[in-house]
Amino acid sequence: MKIETQIWDWPLRLFHWLLVVAVVGAYASGKAGGEWTDWHGRFGSMVLGLLVFRLLWGFVGGRYARFSDFFPTLPRLIAYLKGRWQGAGHNPVGALAVLALLCTLSVLAGTGLFANDDIAFEGPLFDLIDKDFSDKLSGWHIKIVNLLVVLIGLHLTAILFYQGFKKTNLILPMLTGKKQLPKILAPSVSQTTGVIPLILSLLIASSTIWGVWGGNFIDYLAPLAGVQTATADAKTSN
User: Fold this and answer.
1) Which of 68-77, 192-201, 207-216 has the lowest mean pLDDT?
2) Is the model's pLDDT at 220 over the cut of 60?
3) Long-range CB pairs of 10-13, under 8 A, 24+ apart, other chains included
C-alpha cells in the first residue's frame, strides 16, 4: 500500500524552480548577447547565490535535501542496478544527475566571475587576473554551456521516460513536496524546516554575491525584480 508523504521541503522546492528561471534566463540572455549581456551577468549571479544556498542546504536542510541521504555511493549504485535499492528521495542514478548539474553550474558560475566579452562586459572578479587568463576562462565558460545543455536534455528525457513508461510524475512532487511511497518507506516523523539554518543559509548566499560584486550587487541585480535604484536613476539622467 502506498501513502502520500511529504518528502521535499519548501526551501528545496523554491531553490529548484528559481534555479530553472535563472538558468533559462542566463542561457537566453547569453545567446542574445549585445544589450542582454548585463542580464546574462545578473542571471549568472542569481545562479551563484542559489548554488551557495544549495550547498549549505545540503548539510542543514531537510532529511531528503541532505547530500548524506542521496549521495550515490558505489554500494547504493550497485543495489539500484540490481533492483534492490529502496529509498524515498533521489535514487542513486538521479543523484548522479543532480550532482552533475550542480557541479557543471558551479564551474559555469565560477568562470563567469572572471570572464569578459571583449566589448562591454567584465565579470566582477575580472580585475583579479590578467586578460589572457580571463580570455581562457571565457572560452571555457562558453564550452561548458554545451555540457550543461546535454545534461539538461538528459534530465528532461528522464522526466518524460518516468512519466511515459513508469507512470511516475517527477514534476508534481517538486511542486507540492509530496510523493506516493510504500508505507514501509514513508518517514515516521514529519519534516520541519529549521528557521535558524534557513536564515543563516540565505545570509551566507546573499553575502557571497555581495562580496563578489564589491557591495554593488543591489544596483546590478535590482532589474531582476523590476526595481530602479537611485544609482541607476542617476546614470539614466546623465
Assistant:
1) 207-216
2) no
3) 10/177, 10/193, 11/53, 11/57, 11/61, 11/62, 11/65, 11/193, 11/198, 11/201, 12/57, 12/61, 12/62, 12/64, 12/65, 13/174, 13/175, 13/177
Give me the pLDDT at residue 158, please. 93
**pLDDT tens figures, 86-101:** 888 999 999 999 999 9
Sequence-separated (6 or more) residues with CB below 8 Å from residue 214:
124
Is pLDDT at 237 greater than 50 in this prediction? Answer: no
Q: Could you please report the per-residue DSSP string of 50-88?
A: HHHHHHHHHHHS-GGGSHHHH---HHHHHHHHTT----S
- Residues 13, 57: contact at Cβ < 8 Å? no
CA distance 219 to 226: 11
**pLDDT at residue 224, rounded to an integer:** 56
Torsion of CA 6, 12, 17, 21, to 10 degrees: 180
Q: Which three cell numbers stand for residue 90?
A: 533521489
Nine-digit cell string for 140: 571555457
Residues 196, 46: Cα–Cα separation, whole Å? 22
Distance of alpha carbon 145 from alpha carbon 50, whole angstroms = 18
Which run of H or E residues covers position 212?
helix 195-212
- Average pLDDT of the segment spanning 169-181: 91
Task: Look up residue 163 and give its amino acid.
Answer: Q
User: Residue 4's pLDDT is what?
Assistant: 86
Asked if 105 and 23 touch (Cβ cutoff 8 Å), the reply is: yes
